[in-house]
Design brief:
Distance between the termini: 14 Å
Number of strands: 3
Shape: elongated
Largest sheet: 3 strands, mixed
Bound molecules: zinc ion
Oligomer: single chain
């Protein structure tokens, strides 16, 4: 790849995630300031949805940081960042409901979530090792080009992980929206805003997956060029 197209490519893979990050931050900070008419904190929202779904065994705890919210399937705990845990905002309700969406997926044994969990250890190791093989393979391409192929296979596992994350995230958000609407946690007017917050958050996963796919394709392209020489 010559320098011109490469710079364009580099700009794309840097700008896509950056745009997604800015979008989620601006959307979140807008709706974090808007209180819900029901006046429930994120912690109360999570508890309410958990109990309504027979998940009284799942606990809700406060976690430091901004947007550090997550569900831990090992400890059966919904972690909510301080603002979402305490405040009663549209954004907080949406995020809390989304994390509970993961807890419901866990309870139901949702296939994509199980597959994603199974991939975690493999994906961690393979992502770390992939670049070692790719770089050595590229540097010594005349004798060791097959090492690149090993790197590409390892990289592909990481890409698979990013792609499997997408249905897990979209499904948690759609469960979240169903729950907060049917349980009357947000009003009809607030529904659209809550959806905006969750869609913006989902875009960060789409951006990460898109970049991962592009990187994989670039490596495959380099490998086929090297192999042809
Ligand atoms: Zn999620």
């Amino acid at each position: 790849m010559s320098i011109g197209p490469y710079l364009i490519y580099l700009a794309i893979i840097v700008l896509i995630p950056l745009w997604a990050q800015l979008k989620v931050k601006s959307t979140y900070s807008r709706y974090e300031k808007i209180p819900t008419s029901a006046g429930m904190s994120g912690a109360e929202v999570a508890r309410r949805i958990l109990d309504a779904n027979g998940l009284s065994n799942v606990s809700v705890v406060e976690t430091k940081g901004v947007l550090s919210d997550h569900y831990n399937p090992m400890t059966k705990t919904v972690h909510l960042s301080t603002a979402n845990y305490r405040k009663h905002s549209v954004a907080g309700a949406a995020v809390a409901a989304h994390e509970v969406g993961h807890a419901i997926q866990d309870k139901e044994g949702y296939a994509a979530l199980r597959f994603r969990h199974a991939l975690v250890p493999v994906a961690n190791i393979s992502s770390n090792m992939a670049w070692f093989f790719l770089i050595i393979g590229m540097i010594f391409s005349t004798v060791l080009s097959n090492l690149m192929l090993v790197g590409i296979i390892l990289l592909a596992v990481g890409v698979l992980f990013q792609i499997v994350t997408l249905p897990v995230e979209f499904n948690a958000s759609s469960r979240a929206m169903n729950q907060i609407v049917t349980l009357g946690i947000i009003s009809n007017e607030e529904e659209r805003d809550a959806r905006k917050v969750l869609n913006a958050a989902a875009m960060t996963y789409v951006a990460a997956a898109a970049v991962a796919v592009l990187e994989l394709l670039r490596m495959i392209l380099i490998f086929t060029n090297i192999s042809r020489d």
